[in-house]
Description:
- Helix content is 27%, strand content 37%.
- It is built from 3 helices and 8 strands; from the N terminus they run E-H-E-E-E-H-E-H-E-E-E.
- The strands form 2 sheets. The protein has a 4-stranded mixed sheet with strand order 1-4-3-2. Strands 5-8-7-6 form a 4-stranded mixed sheet, with no helix packed on it.
- The longest helix has 13 residues, at 61-73.
- The protein is globular.
- This is VOC family protein.
Amino acid sequence: xxxxxxxxxxxxxxxxxxxxxxxxxxxxxxxxxxxxxxxxxxxxxxxxxxxxxxxxxxxxxxxxxxxxxxxxxxxxxxxxxxxxxxxxxxxxxxxxxxxxxxxxxxxxxxxxxxxxxxxxxxxxxxxx
Length: 128
């Protein structure tokens, strides 16, 4: 058994696609119309083969409430790994990404949170 798909809820699939591809540098794997929404997945050029991030539309009110509660509490929806957090932090900051602080040593990792423009906080992490 292996993990092939992981999802993140987004408030707007078009906005999410632009952010996750144009800003984060992910590539589109699937973009398939499915009624009013799409089966929309992206992959990381630096990630493991076969692992896709599903940009899931919030069409279910409890899902929206959950996303809003996580964001309000400052809890990240997921985490992305990097081998050079300071370089990635500066690259993303130069592209206008809003961070919640600066990279901080947290024991076995260095981490910092950023906003994905789609209603989520994402933890950017460099394992030590």
